[in-house]
Amino acid sequence: MIKLKSKLPLVGDTIFSEMSTLAHHLNAINLGQGFPDYQPDSDLLNAVCQAIQQGPNQYAPMTGVPALRQAIRDKVIAHQGHPYDADTDITVTSGATEALTSSILALVHAGDEVILIDPSYDLYAPVVTLAGGTSVRVAMNPPTQDKPRFSLDWNAIAHAVTSRTRLLILNFPHNPSGLTLREEDLDALEQIAARHDFLIMSDEAYEHIVFDGNSHLSPTSRPALAARCILVSSFAKTFHATAWKIGYCCAPGPISQEIRKVHQFAVYSVNTPIQAGIAAYLKQTQAIQGLSAFYQRKRDRLVQGLNASRLRPLHSEGTFFLLVDTSALGEGLEKELAIRLAQEAGVATIPVSAFYEDPASPRANHQLLRLCFAKQDATLDTAIERLVNV
Ligand code: PMP
Ligand code: GLN
User: Fold this and answer.
1) Beta strand spans in the chain (E)
2) Tell me: the pLDDT tens digits for 106-149?
3) What ligand has the least distance to the C-alpha of 174?
4) What global pTM score does this model have?
5) In terms of CB atoms within 10 Å, which end of the chain has fewer, N or C?
């Protein structure tokens, strides 16, 4: 038997796979892993079908179908503001997942430090490890009775920066808390960045889902930050198509050049007809304009329904996630409660502790679960009925 040495000895199946498998076995409603239970817009499906019928159905250019890179450029100018060059700065990737992984592998060297803000998306830390870097995890302030929401601690972030810091990873609108950035956050970030030389990765997978009349704010809206930023996003959430795995990253030419060196050997290029279909569909921008209102209605439906339960919803400013405080259900690890709720109430959720370095530690457990509301109203209503009875 060949003896293997794991590069990621502590990593198992992701919490999203784990809870989806549990939901499947228990036939529970799956408000865990973030994906819609409805179809993408039929115009998008038609555009993709037409692209498959007409072809080409062969390799796309390594950097992405030119029409899609151009459409991404226009979309980023409209929503984030920065004028990326479609040829040198934009790369179409296999989901945000591959954009993040290729970027970290390309930019982080052995011995480099990468600052993550906890709770942080599960991909970042293991890929930093694969790159030979060290994750430096800075916690957000967790919700309290007086202030029932997560908040950023820019002082702690500033203190975590050292001469070895290569990268700071941001993710707003934030999975799982739903927090969005404000101009004051960018002021604080600009001040830190002016003193230190590090790159910023801005994972904006939920860029088009921001509520209550607010609009998405990206670090790339500030030229000084855009110069050191890698903007990552995906069409998974925007177009209700998590299966298609089409994402992208935008960064100044010399940074993109390094990312592309990894991208070309990780996947070479991404599904051609889906890229072409999305490029055609992106010309009808109304689809994006209505997305925040669409999800705000779902958020409000879930919050209103849960107000009759013992779960206390926190405020969600964006994304399709809602956190609920489960204190009224008793003490214990969030993961144990999530499993119990799936078994006893038939509703699968995600423990927020999974977004911390050690999910079993007290610092990771704040009696919070994440619920995904990218579901048909009927699904949400059935989940609410079940949760009202726990
Ligand atoms: N970043 C965040 C914060 C996410 O929540 C997700 C998954 N939904 C991704 C990246 C991965 O996106 P994709 O499915 O496009 O790979
Ligand atoms: N991003 C999704 C979530 O937070 C999960 C995607 C995945 O399973 N990798 O639920």
Assistant:
1) 29-30, 90-93, 113-118, 134-139, 165-170, 199-203, 229-234, 247-250, 312-313, 321-325, 347-348, 350-351, 368-372
2) 999 999 999 999 999 999 999 999 999 999 999 999 999 899 99
3) 1
4) 0.97
5) N
